Amino acid sequence: MSSRAAVEKKLFTIRYRADRGSHITLADPARCMSCERPCLLFCPAAVYQWEDDHMRIAYENCLECGTCRIACPSGNVVWRYPTGGTGIAYKRG
Asked: Bigger pLDDT: 7 or 50?
């Protein structure tokens, strides 16, 4: 089993209640045009997806791990916790 398949299998052990709006935004979306976009690789839940000429953020899938805040080379990710009662819930610890 590949490591990607193992992550996808574990994603079924979580429950997510989406907030009304995204808790993740980009400070300057134009910065993604000149970036190598490592966020497409380091996000385990594939929240970041490059579509044509813009970054699509599927915040509903966010695991709230915070990797994107730390690993974005230009510090372009603006991240806050989802509002009370929404967000990720882990079933096993």
From this structure: 50
